């Protein structure tokens, strides 16, 4: 049998007299569900713990094509529904095989949206006959896969149910109703190995800083076309208004697919691309070249529009590599960290702190040069340091007043609100925090140049109206903010990432967030580890210790060791150098999957975090 065979001859024949035996076989078959194929225009994320290297690995643009099996003559109702799930929602041939399981009227009304639910094992998905002609599908999902290809973890115990009605067509069962509750696919953990993630590329509005959005795509034939079409689409909702794209709206592929010859991807765009001005044409080259050269076998990109090369003044007249056009990554703050003890603040070189000999001998760290440090006293805590190291901010013990020290000058702002969060600085000259005011929960922002003593201004974040913010930190690129918030009704905490909406360069609001680390229900703190990954301290079991979770914005999380008594999290150099502060006045540093003592301090403050 060829690799393209649909496999109609596989397995025993299923007849109406096979009843219980058939249902047992169907349940066993769940363990081997075939991967759901993607729609031609969308990537589809997956959900299973994988090695972190898979997230950034380069996948081949082509590969083995997997074609699902059509209906088996004589199938019982539950077996037919099981095979329908195996055939997949949103297959790459417009769900052609899956539609063979439907009546004509059901097929006309069924519109799969490319999204999916992920289940962990065969027992998490059940198909049962309720009565003749009615079948229920019940599954416990661990992750949600949205139609754009983002992977979002879910809180434990998320049950999804759909009831399907069936009809006899030529003496065979076919699905006739209930598909409005089954527009999403079901994918097993094992099948996630067939997917790879890729970062789509956008830019910050004010400069050429890259902002990435990671999505998951099925490997194999058509991968490069799916990836290209995803990049041609508008930015996702959590980034809309926060990033820019050079691709004019409704731009599509004029040839229907992207071809690769001699490691050059030839992208023929529709005539709408010609409408872009020189700046957006350049950005179009930057986006598509950066994104597509992440594929193995693609070293350069050639863009055409309406049959001619898409020209841009200053760009070479040849296929371009990522080095020719790449957007530059955001500048990462560097420099000494601040430690707090009874004696006050002191600077420390984190590389020296991490040296075992330094830790063992407890060598003094006060010889590190830098701007004068303020005398913060015992009143102020939850400190933050600006990226340039010239400003320190903190809140008082009542969490109602803000203090800022700029080159030694103290500016105190009383009565800012209640339940203030730790302040945080972005790279564009703004101080962020959140708290409750007379108008409810507010996100507060103030330019660092404003030393007037006025309270920070509230920006527009309607989705936080009935929540309390636990932590808030802007991203290294300054275009996103992570928000840890707690619901007023259920008390659960959640982590979200939202794009920053600006006017004349100043923040004025946050877009609707994308959920991150959804498996946690009680979160203490969170921080950016890099531009795509968060470090979160939390737990899903109230009886367990808090743990550190390394959580990509779109991807499966990695759970590290316990950190009892954790009060905060930060990093001084990516995912390997995570630091957790504790109630015992000790900062712990990551050592493999565990955390070991680093230095005695009640605050470990990294510039720009």
Question: Which terms summarize this structure?
Answer:
single chain, 609 residues, mainly beta, six-stranded mixed beta sheet, five-stranded antiparallel beta sheet, 10 helices, 12% helix
Please give a quick description of this structure:
With 609 residues, this protein is mainly beta. The chain is 12% helix and 37% strand.
Give a verbal description of the structure.
By secondary structure, this protein is mainly β. Helices cover 12% and strands 37% of the residues. The strands form nine sheets. Strands 1, 2, 3, 4, 5 and 6 form a six-stranded mixed beta sheet that branches. Helix 6 (223-232) packs antiparallel against helix 7. The longest helix is centred in the middle third of the chain and has 15 residues, at 278-292. It starts with 18 loop residues before the first helix and ends with a strand.
Q: Approximately how much beta-strand content do the residues carry? A: 35-45%
Task: Calculate Rg over CA atoms.
Answer: 27 Å
How far apart the termini lie comes to 57 Å
Shape: globular
Helix content, binned percent? 10-25%
Secondary structure topology:
Elements: H1 19-29, H2 53-56, H3 77-87, H4 96-99, H5 104-109, E1 116-119, E2 125-131, E3 134-145, E4 151-169, E5 172-177, E6 185-188, E7 195-203, E8 210-218, H6 223-232, E9 259-261, E10 264-269, H7 278-292, E11 300-305, E12 308-309, H8 322-325, E13 337-341, E14 344-348, H9 350-354, H10 356-361, E15 380-385, E16 391-396, E17 402-406, E18 409-413, E19 424-425, E20 430-437, E21 440-447, E22 457-459, E23 467-474, E24 480-487, E25 493-503, E26 506-510, E27 514-516, E28 522-528, E29 533-539, E30 547-552, E31 558-562, E32 566-571, E33 578-582, E34 586-591, E35 594-600, E36 603-605
């Amino acid at each position: 049998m060829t690799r393209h065979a649909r496999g109609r001859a596989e397995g025993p024949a299923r007849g109406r007299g096979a009843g219980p035996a058939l249902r047992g076989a169907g349940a066993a078959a769940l363990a081997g569900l075939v991967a759901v194929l993607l729609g031609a225009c969308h990537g589809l994320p997956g959900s299973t713990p994988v090695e972190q290297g898979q997230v950034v690995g380069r996948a081949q643009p082509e590969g083995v094509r997997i074609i699902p099996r059509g209906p088996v003559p004589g199938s019982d109702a539950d077996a037919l529904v099981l095979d329908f799930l195996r055939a997949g929602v949103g297959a790459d041939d417009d769900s052609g095989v899956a539609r063979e399981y439907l009546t004509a009227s059901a097929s006309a009304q069924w519109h799969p949206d490319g999204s999916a639910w992920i289940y962990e094992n065969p027992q998490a998905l059940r198909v049962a006959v309720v009565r003749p002609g009615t079948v229920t599908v019940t599954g416990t999902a661990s992750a949600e896969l949205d139609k754009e290809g983002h992977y979002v973890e879910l809180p434990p115990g998320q049950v999804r149910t759909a009831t399907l009605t069936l009809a006899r067509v030529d003496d065979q069962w076919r699905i006739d109703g209930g598909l409005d509750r089954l527009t999403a696919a079901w994918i097993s953990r094992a099948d996630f190995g067939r997917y790879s993630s890729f970062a789509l590329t956008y830019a910050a509005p004010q400069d050429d800083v890259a902002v990435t959005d990671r999505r998951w795509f099925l490997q194999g034939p058509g991968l490069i076309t799916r990836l290209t079409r995803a990049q041609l689409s508008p930015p996702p909702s959590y980034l809309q208004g926060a990033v820019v794209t050079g691709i004019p709206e409704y731009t599509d592929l004029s040839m229907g697919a992207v071809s690769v010859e001699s490691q050059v991807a030839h992208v023929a765009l529709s005539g709408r691309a010609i409408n872009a001005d020189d700046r957006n044409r350049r950005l179009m080259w930057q986006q598509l070249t950066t994104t597509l050269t992440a594929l193995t076998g693609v070293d350069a990109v050639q863009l055409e529009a309406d049959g001619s090369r898409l020209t841009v003044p200053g760009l070479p007249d040849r296929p371009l590599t990522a080095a020719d056009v790449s957007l530059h990554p955001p500048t990462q703050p560097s420099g000494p960290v601040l430690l707090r003890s009874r004696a006050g603040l002191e600077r420390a070189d984190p590389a020296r702190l991490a040296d075992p000999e330094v830790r063992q001998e407890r060598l003094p760290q006060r010889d590190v040069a830098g701007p004068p440090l303020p005398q913060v006293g015992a009143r102020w805590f939850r400190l933050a340091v600006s990226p340039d190291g010239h400003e320190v901010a903190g809140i008082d013990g009542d969490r109602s007043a803000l203090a800022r020290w700029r080159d030694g000058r103290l500016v105190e702002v009383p009565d800012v609100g209640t339940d203030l969060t730790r302040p945080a600085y972005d790279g564009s000259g703004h101080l962020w925090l959140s708290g409750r005011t007379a108008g409810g929960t507010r996100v507060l922002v103030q330019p660092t140049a404003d030393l007037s003593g006025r309270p920070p201004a509230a920006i527009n974040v309607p989705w936080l109206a009935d929540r309390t913010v636990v932590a808030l930190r802007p991203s290294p690129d300054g275009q996103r903010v992570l928000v840890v918030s707690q619901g007023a009704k259920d008390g659960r905490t959640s982590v979200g990432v939202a794009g920053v909406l600006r006017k004349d360069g100043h923040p004025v609001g946050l877009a609707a967030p994308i959920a991150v680390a959804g498996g946690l229900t009680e979160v203490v703190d969170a921080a950016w580890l890099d531009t795509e990954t968060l470090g979160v301290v939390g737990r899903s079991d109230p009886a367990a210790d808090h743990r550190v979770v390394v959580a990509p914005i779109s991807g499966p999380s990695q759970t590290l060791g316990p950190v009892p008594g954790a009060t905060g999290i930060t990093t001084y150099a990516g995912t390997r150098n995570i630091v957790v502060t504790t109630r015992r006045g000790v900062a712990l540093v990551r050592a493999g999957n565990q955390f070991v003592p680093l230095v005695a301090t009640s605050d470990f403050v990294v510039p720009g975090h």
